[in-house]
Amino acid sequence: MLIKRSEARAGKQRLAAAYQGLSSGGLDRRAFLKQAGVTGVGLAALGAIPLTTVRPAQAGPMNHAQPVTRVKNICTHCSVGCTVTAEVQNGVWVGQEPTWESPINRGTHCAKGAAVRELVHGDRRLKYPMKLVGGQWQRMSWDQALDEIADKLMAVRQASGPDSTFWLGSAKFSNEGAYLYRKFAAFMGTNSVDHQARICHSTTVAGVANTWGYGAMTNSYNDIRNSKTIMIMGGNPAEAHPVSLQHVLAGKEINRANMIVIDPRFTRTAAHATEYVRIRPGTDIPIIWGILWHIFENGWEDKEFIRQRVYGMDDVRAEVAKWNPAEVERVTGVPGAQLRSVAEKFATQKPSTLIWCMGATQKTVGTANVRAFSILLLATGNVGGDGNGANIFRGHCNVQGATDLGLDVTSLPLYYGLAEGAWKHWSRVWEVSYESLLARFDSKAMMEAPGIPTTRYFDAVTLPKDQVQQRDNTKAMVVFGHGGNTVTRMPDAVKGLEKLDLLVVADPHPTTFAVLANRRDNTYLLPICTQFECDGSRTASNRSIQWGYQVVKPIFESKTDYEVMYRLAGALDKAAEKRNMPVRFQAEMFKNIEVRGQEPVAESILREINRGGWSTGYTGQSPERLKLHMQHQDKFDLVTLRAKADAPAEIANDFYGLPWPCWGTPEMRHPGTHILYNTNLPVKDGGGTFRARFGLERNGVSLLADGSYSKDSQIQDGYPEFTVAVLKRLGWFDDLTAAEKASLERHFGANIDSASWSTDLSGGIQRVAIAHGCIPFGNGKARANAWNLPDPVPVHREPIYTPRTDLIAQYPTLPDRRAFRLPHLGQSVQNRAKDLAPNFPIILTSGRLVEYEGGGEETRSNKWLAELQQDMFVEINPRDAAARNIRDGAWVLVNGPEMPQGKATRMKALVTERVGPGVAWMPFHFAGWFMQEDQRSKYPQGTDPIVLGESVNAVTTYGYDPVTFMQETKVTLCQIRAA
Amino acid sequence: MARMKFLLDAERCIECNACVTACKNEHEVPWGINRRRVVTINDGKPGERSISMACMHCTDAPCAAVCPVSCFYTTADAVVLHDKDLCIGCGYCFYACPFGAPQYPRVGNFGSRGKMDKCTYCAGGPQADNIEAEYVQYGSNRLAEGKLPLCAEMCSTKALLAGDGQVIAQIYRERVQKRGYGSGAWGWRTAYRETVAI
Q: Helices A336-348 and A284-298 sit at what angle, rounded to 10 degrees?
């Protein structure tokens, strides 16, 4: 019999029985409401609903006699940006319907998206603020929690300086939340503010931006429908981005496109490929160079494209020449003939797109990998048109937006960087003086120095003080929306967490941070609501920005990110006053942001972003325009994303979600840019060129485009970025209006000539450039040689922990160095690892499952999802399993070279040919068991996720990309034995 | 009257399990009962295919033929439903079903079965449409609201189709003609005694 869980006790009991011995007990929303009665919390959760309707505040069923409100928001899992249509009755989310009109998902979802309603019924959500007292969780009020946290933060700031606080933000933030958090860190006086992009696509952003201008997906999921060759390398979108496969498979079917999957693992995506290439993990660059070897050998490259739009391709030819088929096969294991066929398809059956994910990026050579991928696209002329491009699938629902808005230790919002000019720009936007911002930092040098990245926070806590280039070690850590099991070297992380003076976790769930270490005090949990309980915009992977509406009020005592940041700023003011510190936060930070009650208004925050986001074209996407797009989703074309002929005038000609760059002011009505660097369209219509951001010439060779320009451009050749000086030279200065000139005069005074398209707050420079058909950032060449990177032309470097120790001498990792205030000892560790390798004969790599996401705390707490994946497991090839007497489904022990002596992780074996011999694969979503210790009892009562398991990162090892400190999660070594 | 069917395009199914959680979410199906599930054959090998599976609402349903209490009935839309007030949980239908659709909650400590539960094609049960009693026993009744089963509506790649048999067969036929391959409408011969001719 089907039993409704909200009605029938038996269902509840049977469900509970299923977890018997697992759960530390709990309280679901209904029980909570019942206990809370009609006081305080209950009312807060239900908002303005009359008391008599408290009883129907349950999951369902829908009462068909009562009106239903439909609210649109965006799925909070991956970056595809599926619209969720929620049916709400009496303030309760009772049903979910397909959103047919969304051009991105057309009604569909994956397992996670179809189960999101469960997130806001919250049986296992964190219900109220808590803190650890002598190792026990205690409930507390919001005011008390924020006061205590603020006081401890200010104590750390007073004793050790602002850089001893570490601010970990979230790709789950809305754009507005992400921006506010970055601003918060700036006002605190530190650049140690980071988020998940560090560990997912930081190397993509660095590598791609250094190639052609912006570090983002160049086209869109929808545009893949135009491709004739689709190459997916280091990605498994069938599990990580299932709805994207709707577009990929459509391209494959309609165009009879080649679908080539290059991966160490025969993934669910590979199962649908027309060609699958199995490689040894960590040999992406030899594969790409091996493909290019055939392309150059046969003259398949796009010579005209290279001549007009690429700098330094000859340097690539020299490197590629070394990678003849024999050497490629020796290093990667892939036969030359197979790569020849791939090369021919990719170069000649165009348009071709290259799709990549974390298989490419989470490497010690991540940036170089991504550069090699981009170079392959450039060599074949596959950038800037329909159906081609670098389709980089980002991971989280707003990791693109959070990256854009500067949750990054190297930049202020929107990639302005940290140099004085960047601070001055944002001080103008924030209407605070540059000097007052400078005074918040330890020094000007620290103000301009990249902060501590999330991959190394624990090193900044535990290393000797003299090895961390700031006043003191990291002492306090504030984590918003981030799992504690997402970073490698967890045994080391435990030591760091235990040594912190203060740990604050603000999240809908306690997360692994709450239970991983043996902390006993000074640890706070703040319940944050999900984005479904909050208004705000989020940027999908294709740069389209979508407005999500609050579905229900925050449940239990949870609050929005905005409110918590606002109130924490207020609490910091009080704490500073108490300690006689001159620094203040709330009034200046929220100076131009509307606050309703205690909650900053999302629309108002977005308007501030619009006022400052010139560098990336985040200026045209006003809340009003975004809301119109959500309202008229059905008026956008499935393939071009352009508003259709019958669209209302206010969205006419727009691309869906105004994908950035959306130049100028909202009133200018730029349509957004569906495909970056597309010279086939005028700039005002979404066209563009490669960005001229690397100077005008290098060693006598011009870096500006040669005879290539966007449609209708009045300058029919390359040109530099626009400044007032350039406008004057072109005789276009007087095209600026009086108001625009006055704004430039006011902000730049005597230095008016230096004002540029990215710092002019009036938008006049952009407007004038675009009126003349020119793109504000200039028309440059993409760089095949990026001279500022450690490897200007990518070269193969063996992973730190490689089974092919014979190749280390020829292909060593980079020498030891320092970056991000910390030592980076890659080569020392590689030399030591060489001797350990024989004891750890299996390569360990990791990835996603469709049912879970990220650290998995939220999805493992969702019973519809948890039921589908109940155990942590390791995939092992039948040959390796047989040699170890391991049967499918049996328990095994896995240990890695950096785990403490005698320790191992315990999980189930999945014996499968999906992985090749000598390779094992683990999903990375599990936590709650740590080296065989079950940590369930350490969660606050009732908040433990349904499914716990060992974390892959208990096994993973040292290894960082030199440019971004991305961690190596895709290639390490391990040993597996039967338990 | 339309003849409702399911059609699974195995060339499109990626085992994302949206159909499974959509069903759970829509009907609040308890843990341990799976009205729909995804099965993968040749897992991890070339030729791997995933198939989303539930009650296919067969023509001349074998479950109905073996039921000792005649609790099954077929609606005018050709949806096979059953009456839980009549069901005795004997399990015969489970043995008769070629798709493994019938599910039984465990009600005691000795493996005794509760009343059978299975996919209703989002068409509820014998009670009046969309009343609470129907929801509690069978889940929501989307068909009565003019909507199709949510599993198919939310399928990420539109591999799972639901609707009038002729309409979905035509969609599938056009797809196969366009792309040039197709492994057939999975389970149709068994369930409906016919195949989709391309």
A: 70
Q: Do A868 and B130 touch (CB under 8 A)?
A: no
Instruction: Single out the residue of A584, A626, A514, A548 nearest to residue A157, CA to CA.
Output: A584
What's the pLDDT score for residue A301? 98
Cα angle value B102/A60/A8 (rounded, 5°): 65
Give how far A241 is from chain B: nearest CA, Å.
Answer: 9
Q: What is the pLDDT of residues A306-317, one digit of tens each?
A: 999 999 999 999
What are phi and psi for residue A163, nearest 5 degrees? -75, -5
* ipTM score above 0.90: yes
What's A719-759 look like in SS3? ECCCEHHHHHHHCCHHHCCHHHHHHHHHHHHHHHHHCECCC
What the block records as the tokens of A312 is 């330094």
Give the separation between CA A872 and CA A860, rounded to whole angstroms. Answer: 11
Selected for mutation to probe chain A from B13, B17, B115, B148 (highest A CB count within 10 Å) is: B17
Name the helix (H) or strand (E) containing B41.
strand B36-41
Q: How far is A678 from chain B (nearest CA, A)?
A: 29
| Cα–Cα distance for residue pair A751/A729, rounded to 1 Å | 16
How far apart (Å, rounded) are the C-alpha atoms in residues A377 and A227?
Answer: 13
- Measured between beta carbons, which residues in chain A are less than 8 angstroms from residue B16? 110-111, 238-239, 242, 245, 850
- Separation in Å, CA A215 to CA A80, A177, A415, A691, A884: 17, 21, 10, 11, 44
- Mean pLDDT calculated for residue range A38-58: 34
* Model pLDDT for residues B84-110, shown as the tens digit of each residue: 999 999 999 999 999 999 999 987 777
pLDDT of residue A18: 37
Tokens of A559: 């609050």
Q: Are A940 and A857 in contact (CB under 8 A)?
A: no
Q: What is the mean pLDDT of residues A122-130?
A: 94
